[in-house]
Amino acid sequence: MNKAVKLLARSLLALGLVAGVAACSFRPLYGNSAEGAAARTGIQSVEVGQIDFGRVGQHVRNELISQMTPRGTPARPEFTLSVALQDVVADLLVQENSTVLRRNYTLTATYQLIDNETGAPVFSSSVQRNAALNRLDSEYANVIALRDAEERAAAAVATVITQRLSIALSELASPEKRRKAALEEANRIKAAPARSATPPEPVDQPLVSPTPDGTTLIGAGDDRAATGSRFPEPVAIDSAD
């Protein structure tokens, strides 16, 4: 009787797990649904733009093409993928004598999916992936290790971009959804804080007439020193030169 109760309890637990997974609405991305068909056809209609970032950019672009359009660039692409890259190498393991034993290569990609019909971005995001490498005594070995880390990071970044674009394209099956996504993307970009590309202009300091001893004071009459400002005191410049 005890064995029968345990068997029944296990059966009920299994049924509960199955029902829970079904309730979460997990579906395969490339399944036989409308979203799956949209993901399959959408990812194959994406043209990967040029990535101006040397060898690493070439590796990322080749990986994207291989994963999204392995049969070649589509004749009439519906979307264009724009990718911008940044990378950095940082020391990860340093001994007490400052000898570096291990380093970390970090590759960051910022990308946009642009609708070729409207020219508006319908999806944008960023991804960052790391690849560790050893620091050796041989400079040639260090160059090879860095190249290997670059290729591994490039492949990882391309895989994440492909997966995210597939999910986004599964939700953009109709033109109405594309227009809605483009509007939301435009509002998101508009609401983002603006970043100035140039430094702020310096504040002009007032000049006063020369003093009887032939010097001119820059910033004379400025009360910032009296108010405890961190700026230096006015400097006297000999006008005779």
Can you walk through the features of this model?
By secondary structure, the chain is of the alpha+beta class. The protein is 40% helix and 23% strand. The chain has helices spanning 2-23, 34-43, 54-68, 139-170, 175-191, and strands spanning 46-48, 79-94, 100-115, 121-134, 215-217, 236-238. The chain has a four-stranded mixed β-sheet. The protein is extended, with a radius of gyration of 30 Å.
For this entry, give a set of tags:
5 helices, single chain, alpha+beta, four-stranded mixed β-sheet, 40% helix, 241 residues, two-stranded antiparallel sheet, 6 strands
Rg, Cα atoms, Å: 30 Å
Order of helices and strands: HHEHEEEHHEE
Distance between the termini: 110 Å
Q: Main sheet: which strands, in order across?
A: 1-2-3-4
User: What is the global morphology?
Assistant: extended
SSE class: alpha+beta
The helicity comes to 25-40%
Mean pLDDT: 76
Biggest sheet architecture:
4 strands, mixed
Which residues sit in consecutive blocks of at least 5 with pLDDT less than 50? Answer: 196-209, 216-232
The proportion of residues in beta strands is 15-25%
**Secondary structure tally, helices:** 5
- DSSP strand tally: 6
